[in-house]
Amino acid sequence: MATSARRGKPAKLTSAEKKAARVAKRAKRRETFSNVRQAFTLTRQQDSRFLPVIIATVVLAIAVVYAVVFLITDSVYIPIPLALIFGLAAGMFVFSRRAQKSMFSQAEGQAGAAGWMLQQQLRGDWRLTQAVAGTTQLDAVHRLVGRPGVVLVGEGAPHRVRGLLAQEKKRTARVVGETPIYDITVGTGEGDIRLSRLNRYLVKLPSNLSKDQVATLEKRLAALGGSRAAALPKGPMPQGAKMRNVQRTVRRRS
């Protein structure tokens, strides 16, 4: 019995493994801090009201929580830590929301923005295949497979993307049969889905398939071919980038 109990316990880490784990943990913390600092800097540059709004939120949250707790406890000191905690939490919430808003406003309208958003910010159980169709002008159609069915997401010039979506929808329909197919365009024009609202749109779609049906559907769609994402930008193209140079690179990779 003692032997079996010892076997059930996880093996102890060696000193070298513990040291490696500590180093990895410190590296992860540094990376997180660096990302937060970069997001703070970029948001402050893009949003002139960023700092005033955060400061006002923190001060207001501290004042409100302090007053409420003071009225309940009739103590001068007890409300202080609670007020500071709530003030910090409120400040972080506002920072997160405004940083996300600034990020989307910078990315919106840039080539590759929708593909980047789907890869980095997508919520829910989706199978993503980037750039199942595209042009050398950096227009692209991305395919999502999930509980609602198949969602084709187009980005680029509207007059070219509409044709790409129609072609890809026909190809997909031959494989998926009666499975629902949704086609949308990400952009700022009439009938388009804004980049910042794409996640919200996807979350609201009805669940039409079971998990097993989704897995089967994904295998069937593999017959249509994989992604052409290697020929497209890996994220939103910087506003200063020369379109002609990027298109030349895309032609070489295609």
Please give the order of strands in the largest beta sheet: 1-2-3-4
Structural class estimated from helices and strands: alpha+beta
- How would you describe the oligomerization state of the chains in this entry? single chain
- The outline comes out as extended
- The N- to C-terminal Cα distance equals 63 Å
Low-confidence segments, given as residue ranges, are: 1-6, 237-254
Detailed description of the structure:
The protein is an alpha+beta fold. It is 58% helix and 11% strand. It has nine helices and four strands, in the order αααααβββαβααα. It has helices spanning 2-8, 15-46, 50-73, 79-107, 113-120, 158-176, 198-204, 211-221, 243-253, and strands at residues 127-134, 140-146, 149-155, 181-186. It has a four-stranded mixed sheet, sandwiched between helices. Strand 1 and strand 2 (140-146) form a beta hairpin. Helix 2 packs across helix 4 and helix 3 packs antiparallel against helix 4. The protein is extended, with a radius of gyration of 25 Å. It starts with a helix and ends with a helix.
Helices and strands in order:
Layout: H1 2-8, H2 15-46, H3 50-73, H4 79-107, H5 113-120, E1 127-134, E2 140-146, E3 149-155, H6 158-176, E4 181-186, H7 198-204, H8 211-221, H9 243-253
Parallel strand pairs: 3-4
Antiparallel strand pairs: 1-2, 2-3
Helix pairs in contact: 2-4, 3-4
List keywords for this structure.
about 250 residues, alpha+beta, 4-stranded mixed beta sheet, 9 helices, extended, disordered C terminus
What is this entry, summarized?
With 254 residues, this protein is α+β, with helices and mostly antiparallel strands.
